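Reopening: structure tokens for the pyridoxal-5'-phosphate complex, inputs below.
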Amino acid sequence: MSKFWSQMAKRAEPYVPGEQLEQVDLIKLNTNENPYPPSPKVLAVIEEELKGKLHLYPSPTADNLRQTIGDYYNLSANEVFIGNGSDEVLAFSFMAFFEPGEPIRFPEVTYSFYPVYAKLFDIPFEEIALKDDFSIDAEDYFQSKGGVILPNPNAPTSLYVGIDHIEAIIKNNPTQVVIIDEAYVDFAAQSAASLVRKYDNVLVVQTTSKSRSLAGLRVGFALGNSSLIDALIRMKDSFNSYTIDRLALVGAQAAFEDKAHFQKATERIISTREGVMEKMRLLGFDVLPSQANFVFATHPMYLAKWLYTELKKEGILVRHFDKQPIDNYLRITIGTDDQMEKFFSKLHEIINI
Ligand SMILES: *Cc1c(COP(=O)(O)O)cnc(C)c1O
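Re-run output (same inputs, fresh job):
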């Protein structure tokens, strides 16, 4: 800290992302990336775009990508906002819809970026306790003073809340914005995108980082009533006209157009996930019923922190949050079947079963 820092710079408590080690033989199951490559069509359009276009600015309005994503969800382009990763979409949303002075609500155990944005923008927040099984009680989010943000499925618990509960939360906050962060929804039952035309106070935020294997490209998006989208555009255009570069614009569009590739990769992850949950239970783990591309588990006999350290020694990186009430849990990203086999063989050695 220095005397030159603004109040905002002093107030900031930056998010700490999962370790990104560049060790090549490491099995990386710690940041919920997709283990499979993106559609080959993504690479083809990026190569095409590289041929002589980089000297030109990208589209400031991202119209083609908005139209493509709109078509995918039966919405129009003006009901879609594109951001540089959904983290940026979320930051703009906090600025556009939440006020200093009016407390927003989110779960006590959730994506740790929410308190970071709230502190940065001076927005008070209420962290709502989860039930003993880590599930969410929709009524706890009714009639909020400042708005609601809820990931569905939740991270890091992996639990999904049924669309009827999500709709009840939206309905019972008629004068506030309810943001549903659907980073993992493609691995779950149903998106709340179908509620966008029904309610003017819901914003559905998604990303291409997980289910579309494009974490390195940085494209996230929001679906909502065009008046909400307009507010996000005002925020973006007050910061940077060109948040999405040329490669990201064409790459993300190709990813949405290749539905077959997406479906196959997603089904593969879901099928691996079901096997992983079963195997972990056989090893004595208590595993939450996941609808995401990761599992959240605890063992009655082995400390999570110790397991994390032992796995890391063996070149397998998982995520451990040194924070109550989840400090005895591990979050394990679903990798390829081959990666998960190696994970289980090391885990067997470590816990000696
Ligand atoms: C991964 C994740 C994000 C951020 O995704 P990007 O689009 O890569 O910025 C947002 N919310 C949750 C809950 C996530 O897990």
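Residues 32, 85-87, 111, 151, 155, 181, 183, 207, 209, 215, 220 surround pyridoxal-5'-phosphate (CB under 6 Å). The longest strand covers residues 202-207. Marking as resolved unless the reporter disagrees.
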